[in-house]
Amino acid sequence: MPELPEMQALAERLDTALSGSTLTSVEVLQFSALKTVVPAADAGVGHTVESVGRRGKYLLIDFDEGLRMIVHLSQGGRLDLEDTPKRTRPKGAVVRLRFEGAPDVLVKEFGTERKAAWWVLAPGELGPLDGLGPEPFSDEFAELVRTGDDKRRVHTMLRDQRTVAGIGRGHTDDILHHAQLSPYATLASLSADERERLLTAVHEILDAALALERKRTGGLPTKLRDRFIVHGKSGQPCPRCGDDLRRVSYESHEVAYCPTCQTGGKVLADRRLSRLVR
Questions:
Q1: Which band of pLDDT confidence, cut at 50, 70 and 90, is reported for residue 224?
Q2: How far is CA 49 from each of CA 21, 68, 121, 246, rounded to the nearest angstrom?
Q3: Cβ–Cβ < 8 Å for 3, 44
């Protein structure tokens, strides 16, 4: 799933491409993805894009008079910038936004799940942004890490968008590896030094990922390869110590870690394997 670095860099590219242009049409290509009824899907037609930004994993397109479109790509959503107007309807197409003086924007989704979504909001409406936690670089999040007593696993906490907005499974694996913390550790159990390591790791991992994403051009391609340090790399050598990376498998995701660097040599039980052995 695209996370904060991917979405921030994408928002910056779209801001450059779309700001000052006028929306000329909205082609709804997958009706279930539109999560609002009022204002209408085409309410932005004739309005000028003032800016494109990001909140958490959401893309924000702000028009004049306070109208806003929000896009969430979910797991399989991607975005194309079409310099030449097209009439095709690619497989998985969600919506196409046409602009005067700027490329068209096509939101699409690959895979079998259909969770990509978009909203059209009247001035002042929060829509899906309501309830999102603070951003990872905010003072509020720093205070939470330094003084919080959350008893959930840190891996769970960092992925909870109501606690901190924008971090997902991939960058969470990399953050905890960078901080040399077990994915099963709880925030409440961390020492002051470990909390500072965690906060530093959040910032350094996201900063490094954003720097790489800013080298990308155009939209967001189907394959987002080679963007993680340890996530998805179970069985490969740890980039710090050289030992094999391990994983814990769940129904919908995996947690990657290094036993030597993060768990004092302890190999965490792989729940999926445990079920097969029983």
A1: confident
A2: 6, 9, 14, 46
A3: no
What is the separation of C-alpha 142 from the centre of its chain, rounded to a whole number of angstroms?
A: 20
Q: Percentage of the chain with pLDDT > 90?
A: 85
Integer CA distances (angstroms), 196 to 15, 152, 184, in order: 34, 18, 18
Question: How does pLDDT run across 109-131, given as a tens digit for each residue?
Answer: 987 777 999 999 999 999 999 99
By DSSP bridging, strand 49-55 and strand 246-249 are unpaired
Residue 147 near residue 175, CB atoms below 8 Å: no
Per-residue pLDDT of 21-57, as tens digits, reads: 999 999 999 999 999 999 999 999 999 999 999 999 9
* Each residue's pLDDT tens digit, 179-219: 999 999 999 999 999 999 999 999 999 999 999 999 999 99
Q: How many CA atoms lie within 13 A of 99 on its CB side?
A: 23
**What is the rounded CA–CA span in Å between residue 86 and residue 91?**
14
Tokens of 120: 């059209």
The closest alpha carbon to 175, from 207, 151, 148, 144, belongs to: 207
Contact 219, 80 (CB under 8 A): yes
d(Cα 160, Cα 180) in Å, to the nearest integer?
21
* CA–CA distances in Å: residue 166 to residues 17, 73, 158, 201, 243: 23, 12, 9, 15, 30
Distance between the two ends of the chain, CA-based, in angstroms? 32
